[in-house]
Amino acid sequence: MFAKPKHPPHKIELNLREVGQLFNTMDPAPFPEKDLDSDAEEFILSWVGEFPLDEPVSLVVHVAELPAEANAQTVVEQGVHHYFTYRARLNRMELRRLLSDGQKSLFIGLAFLSACLTASHALGAGTGGDFRSIARESLTIAGWVAMWRPMQIYLYDWWPLRRRGRLYRKLARMHVEVRKKG
Question: Nearest to residue 77, comparing CAs of 174, 147, 11, 181?
């Protein structure tokens, strides 16, 4: 019935001497394809993680010296968007790989659990003494322990990757502004 009020973008502000500080100096690629500096990436991610995912963010880069040979706004904006788009793509691949590993682990775990339960039932219930009883319980426990990894993946491990991917996608389209320091 009522529209959710639109929030102004949360600002993430970086203060740099020059535009090059934002990018990894070891990366030989031209500026739009360069990786971000790891400290800059960590700073941006830590700040954006503080804000709700559904609220917009804006990156404001304050630079003491603007480059004479290139448009700083274009270089920074394209570089930031390119980098986080790339990271989002890597994150999707990592999530797919994790879920694939989970599926394989689930099939292996179910097969092992079935084998253990079948062997446990084959040992028979009731008579047979302590050794049979211990063997039956051990097989049952071993079978359920084999299910630990797929359950870990499907219940818990994929959530952080999904959230990180949403952050990367958000950063890949955030507003970026370059300002010359006063």
Answer: 174
